[in-house]
Design goal:
heterodimer; A: about 325 residues; mainly alpha; 13 helices; flat; disordered N terminus; B: about 450 residues; alpha/beta; four-stranded mixed β-sheet; about 40% helix; globular
């Protein structure tokens, strides 16, 4: 574990305080100047817009006719009078659960496989990473054919074992898992790459020492690899939780349009529909804020509950 | 011409994959002032710029629009028309943003189901005062076109073309089966009987008698033709649960159940038109005249157009695909925009686009001209007469200012019908349960 100890030399250089303060302010001015371009951008395009959307979330507004101030009306409608919101919310969580866990486990497995010193292994790494850079539209077309009830490869494969044809995207029980399978495939290369970076930063001598002590492969994984991968695991978990709670939009939009019924409506899809297809901008802004708070809480909880169990140092 | 500009939200999956422009356009105003009852006096000359938005999914339309702008410049050297190409998928969003930002396009296109939204929000300039002031004759336009673009006595736009739902049939298959081809007198029974006779074989050689597309235009048609109405009382009520509507849906579902039409899950991946293209389908219902251009290159079989069959009420009903050009009410240069709009729908303007026309010209003089009717493509496929025969029975899009939201709610309930998991009698009352609240002003979540 990392420890911070007071460095006597550093402490000396910081005194006396008055001189330090003056120098710091000149330095910090320069620092802020360097920061200014991105800070201005951040203030205008993030902070200002977020605050605007907070104001808009209290309106009923279609962008074109004058808005009406409605206070918390949008929030109460969303939470208490819009069953589609709760359906979308539930679907988003289910989709996230079905995507994150398999995506991470398979990503780690792949990383372990391609983390070997072998000629041509980079070809495999590139191949597994490929789905990440393939445009979503192309992926969607491929998966729509895979899932096609009549001509799809998946039904053909199950047909070899005498399983009857199934309409994967067309039935409400399998549409969501089918989308999850697709996004696992999409995220696999991404997760693999990060795990690979994590694996390669583990010093080789730890394994050598463990081998000398007679540790088998499983023991080495359990006692060295897994603990030292935790920062990366945590990073992937947090980022994919955020991405999944926000997202799933592209896949839903391209594959199912929320159907059949409401079985694949996700937060992002319904939010998009409210804003850009129904022109309910105030309502969509309120929706976005609810989503923001949910994601914020989820991320906070992950930090709170998991960060103590992370090994940032291997010394 | 912009036959596709209106709304062609076909089977919802396919539409997205092909990124066909799903919606028309919205445009409008930021104020709430009442529309001008009287046009300003006619200026001696117009000048300045006119910005017109055009969705970017049809290169032919964009080229035509630019050609029209160049031709207009010759007679109006002081006016510059700029064609602003907007990505088709974000078209309405972009136009709305422009208007909200105070820089509206002067002319924008829209169509059928999106027009009520424009009307309800008063985005479009009422053209009636301008037509009166200029003694602009509309006698040459098909009366249904002018009627279709008139709401509460106000003309919201003009168009160069119109389109409606028809049937496409594979003449080769009909000849092979020794059956009489469809004609304007066909009833639903004639259609089903022929479809059953054409259906044959199984497996790879399966031939379907028909493919009946399952988006709103064809099933509205069947509801109307059976004496129903999806949204009666000017869009304030839900008519899906009426007896007539249930029987209309039953008649469609029977096609899927009896196997004379592939089921929606079977054709949703590729689309009805693609299936018809394979030559293994006798008749296709669910498209307007745009499909003729998708079928243009078919060589393996002969196909022709016919009106859709009449329903149990004894009459035909066919959805009116009506696109329009409108002038934004907040346009800074309405006079020049009006001049260019008139030029686009003038005989010269329409003639410029005739070669690539997907709809029927809005002017009778051109729709009846030899150049149009004797076109070899038209003659070969009978691609005008069935539309003219269907014109008296066109039905305008229901008056739903929040069409997208209503239609999404309907779709969500109908999925179970199309998957053959629920009967229309089970699902259609649920449609009305979900939709009735949305039809009240302010009753929709987010719109209240």
């Amino acid at each position: 574990m990392a420890t911070v100890t007071a460095d006597p030399a550093l402490t000396a250089s910081l005194a006396p305080a008055s001189r330090h303060r003056r120098r710091l302010s000149r330095e910090s001015l320069a620092g802020y100047l360097f920061l200014a371009p991105s800070l201005v951008h951040f203030l205008i395009f993030t902070v200002y817009l977020m605050l605007s959307s907070l104001v808009i979330s209290t309106w009923t507004w279609d962008l074109l006719t004058p808005h009406r101030q409605r206070g918390f009306y949008n929030y109460s409608t969303l939470l208490f009078h819009d069953p589609i919101f709760w359906t979308a919310f539930r679907n988003t969580i289910v989709l996230a659960l079905l995507t994150i866990a398999p995506g991470m486990i398979l990503g780690l497995a792949l990383a372990l496989v391609v983390n070997v010193k072998l000629r041509g292994v980079s070809i495999f790494r590139a191949a597994y990473f490929l789905p990440v850079v393939v445009p979503v539209v192309a992926t969607a077309i491929i998966f729509r054919w895979l899932y096609n009830p009549d001509f799809g490869l998946i039904n053909w494969f199950f047909g070899l074992f005498g399983v009857a044809k199934h309409d994967w995207l067309g039935s409400s029980s399998t549409a969501l898992p089918s989308l999850a399978a697709m996004s696992v495939w999409q995220s696999l290369g991404w997760n693999m790459t990060f795990f690979l970076v994590g694996l390669q930063s583990i010093p080789e001598q730890l394994y050598e020492a463990a081998k000398l002590d007679g540790a088998g492969p499983w023991m080495r994984f359990k006692r060295i690899t897994w603990p030292l991968l935790t920062p990366m695991t945590f990073f992937i978990l947090v980022t994919s939780t955020i991405a999944n709670l926000q997202g799933g939009f592209d896949n839903v939009y391209l594959m199912t349009q929320g159907g059949p019924g409401y079985s694949t409506y996700t937060n992002s899809f319904y939010l998009y529909s409210q804003a850009f297809r129904y022109f309910h901008y105030g309502y969509a802004a309120a929706y976005a804020w609810v989503l923001f708070i949910v994601i914020g809480v989820a991320t906070f909880l992950q930090f709170r509950c998991l960060s103590k169990r992370i090994n940032y140092d291997c010394s | 011409m912009t036959a596709r500009l209106g709304l062609r939200a076909g089977p919802r999956l396919l539409t997205v994959i092909t990124t066909v422009a799903m919606t028309g356009i919205l445009a409008g105003c930021s104020g709430s002032s009442t529309p001008t009852a009287k046009a300003p006096p006619k200026p001696k000359a117009v000048s300045g710029t006119v910005v017109m938005t055009e969705p970017g999914d049809n290169p032919g339309d964009i080229a035509l629009r630019r050609q029209l702008a160049a031709a207009f410049k010759k007679t109006h050297p002081n006016v510059t028309v700029t064609i602003l190409v907007v990505p088709a998928t974000n078209y309405d969003q972009k136009v709305q943003t422009m208007i909200a930002g105070g820089r509206p396009p002067d002319i924008f296109g829209s169509g059928d189901v999106q027009i009520p939204n424009i009307v309800s929000k008063n985005f479009a300039l009422d053209l009636t005062p301008y037509t009166k002031r200029d003694h602009y004759s509309m006698a040459d336009f098909y009366p249904q076109v002018i009627d279709g673009l008139t709401y509460n006595g106000k003309l919201v736009g003009l168009t160069d073309n119109w389109d409606t739902q028809v049937m496409y049939y594979n003449e080769t298959l009909f000849k092979k089966a020794g059956l009489a081809v469809p004609n304007a007198d066909w009833t639903w029974n004639d259609f089903v009987t022929a479809a059953k006779k054409l259906t044959s074989s199984t497996g790879k050689n399966k031939v379907y008698g028909a493919v009946y597309d399952n988006w709103f235009a064809p099933y509205y048609d069947q509801m109307w033709a059976n004496g129903g109405d999806p949204f009666p009382d000017k869009g304030t009520k839900c008519g899906y649960d009426s007896k007539a509507s249930v029987s209309a849906f039953n008649s469609i579902v029977d096609l899927y159940k009896s196997g004379v039409s592939p089921t929606p899950s079977q054709f949703s991946g590729q689309g009805a038109e693609q299936l018809f293209l394979t030559g293994r389908v006798g008749m296709m219902v669910g498209s307007g005249r745009w499909a003729a251009y998708d079928l243009r290159d078919v060589k393996a079989f002969d196909w022709k157009v016919a009106p859709i069959p009449k329903g149990s009420s004894g009459t035909r009903a066919n959805f009116f695909h009506l696109s329009m050009f409108a002038i934004a009410r907040t346009s800074k240069n309405p006079e020049a925009a009006w001049e260019f709009l008139k030029f686009m729908v003038s005989p010269e303007g329409i003639k410029l686009g005739l070669a690539a026309a997907q709809g029927i010209p809005s002017r009778q003089s051109i729709a009846k001209s030899a150049a149009f009717i004797n076109d070899p493509f038209v003659v070969k496929h009978n691609a005008v007469q069935p539309f003219i025969e269907s014109l008296p029975t066109v039905h305008r899009a229901p008056y739903l200012p929040n069409f997208n939201q209503v239609n999404d709610a309907v779709d969500a309930q109908l999925d179970a019908v199309w998957a053959l998991k629920q009967t229309p009698a089970q699902a259609l009352p649920k449609v009305c349960q979900k939709v009735t609240a949305l039809l009240k002003a302010g009753g929709a979540p987010g719109g209240g």
